[in-house]
Specification:
14 helices, globular, five-stranded mixed β-sheet, 10 strands
Length: about 375
């Protein structure tokens, strides 16, 4: 990740992205388990399909919650370690190191456009009233508009993902030309260091979310210049993806994963926060990975505004259009419906009412 910070021009970054995604596609087409991962991970003694995944330290993913709630009947999760970023997570899925991954939809589109045969099956994160990413400036910075960012630095967690896409889309919507947008420098920083870099003047804008946003606001002296929620309102930004060959070979397992994870998302959406945090605390404690429980006190919501994480066309199409406008995809070659399916989601396929609870029950408004 750090190397990308020094590549210079956006043209060079685009060439690197294309090379990475082409390599991943070649790996998949070749189908070599030795070169690209271990292949399918088998089944348990009682016949459940083992699904490998990467987690995030100190957090409980919706599928981990689903397993704890007993929502799976045909699969068993197997933790392979923690991921470093969304793009890395879906690359691991594409190269058969794990069965599925989650990333920003723009990164999903780029991986699919690079030739990787993947399909999004469920929304994985987004922005709602309580959980979102803000792009903060110092109160004394004098920065009040997009035009003020020309020649300035924006601190992001990685390139080619959520923070870059949202920033460039906001700048575009604010009327900056592509030439002016290229003068806004994106600086890759670990989230734990981004606030400090902003306060020291090493960057001019800091992308902050969750605990990093809340603690930065509490210390004062900062305010948001824009947020992802400002751009599109409540919106799903990322999806869980599986390889198409895995879906074809293990459709029952993928169906079980999606229905259980969708129901767990819904459980967290309709359950009081204190009960959700208590459940997360219990899950993290039981799995024994020596994680910091302090992060849980900053939990606000799932960040997924749609019941059960049902995917909408616009959540992928908007980034297809962005990449076309940026010259990274050809016009008309890709459309959102080619990249996702809701067929396994009980909140989309008629199993439950779209606004039902985690077992299909009516939920009070």
């Amino acid at each position: 990740m750090g190397m990308l910070e020094y590549l210079g021009t956006s043209a060079r970054r685009r060439k690197l992205y294309r090379a990475v995604y082409a390599l991943l596609a070649l790996c998949l087409i070749a189908g070599s388990a030795a070169a690209c991962g271990k292949g399918d991970s088998g089944a348990t003694a009682d016949g459940r399909t083992i699904i490998r995944y990467q987690g995030t330290t100190g957090q409980v993913a919706p599928f981990e919650l689903a397993a704890d709630l007993g929502y799976f009947s045909k699969i068993q999760l197997h933790w392979e370690g923690d991921t470093t970023s969304g793009p890395a997570n879906i690359q691991a899925a594409a190269t058969k190191q794990i069965e599925f991954g989650s990333a920003f939809n723009g990164a999903v589109v780029k991986l699919a456009a690079g030739g990787a045969p993947i399909t999004s099956v469920l929304s994985s994160y987004g922005a709602d009233d309580q959980s979102f990413t803000g792009y903060y400036v110092r109160d004394d910075s004098g920065i009040t508009s997009a035009r003020d960012l020309i020649g300035k630095k924006v601190g992001v967690n990685t390139l080619g993902a959520h923070h870059e896409f949202v920033t460039r889309e906001w700048l575009h919507q604010q009327g900056l030309s592509e030439a002016e947008i290229k003068q806004v420098q994106l600086v890759v920083l670990p989230p734990v260091s981004t606030e400090e870099a902003l306060r020291k003047g090493q960057i001019d804008v800091a992308a902050l979310s969750s605990v990093f946003r809340d603690t930065a606001i509490a210390r004062g002296g900062l305010h948001p210049l824009y947020t992802d929620k400002d751009l599109f309102g409540q919106f799903d930004y990322g999806t869980f993806v599986f390889r198409k060959d895995y879906i074809a070979a293990h459709q029952d397992a993928v169906r079980d994963f999606v229905q259980g994870t969708a129901r767990a998302i819904r459980w967290a959406q309709v359950t009081p926060r204190d009960q959700v945090v208590a459940r997360f605390t219990d899950i993290i404690t039981k799995r024994g990975r020596n994680e910091n429980l302090e992060l849980l006190k900053y939990y606000r919501s799932t960040g997924i505004p749609v019941p059960g994480g049902v995917i909408a066309d616009r959540e992928l199409q908007i980034w297809i259009d962005w990449l076309v406008r940026n010259g990274e995809l050809p016009q008309g070659k890709y459309k959102a419906t080619d990249l996702y399916t809701n067929q396994y989601n009980p909140y989309a396929n008629g199993t439950y009412s779209p606004t039902a609870g985690p077992t299909g029950e009516a939920v009070a408004k």
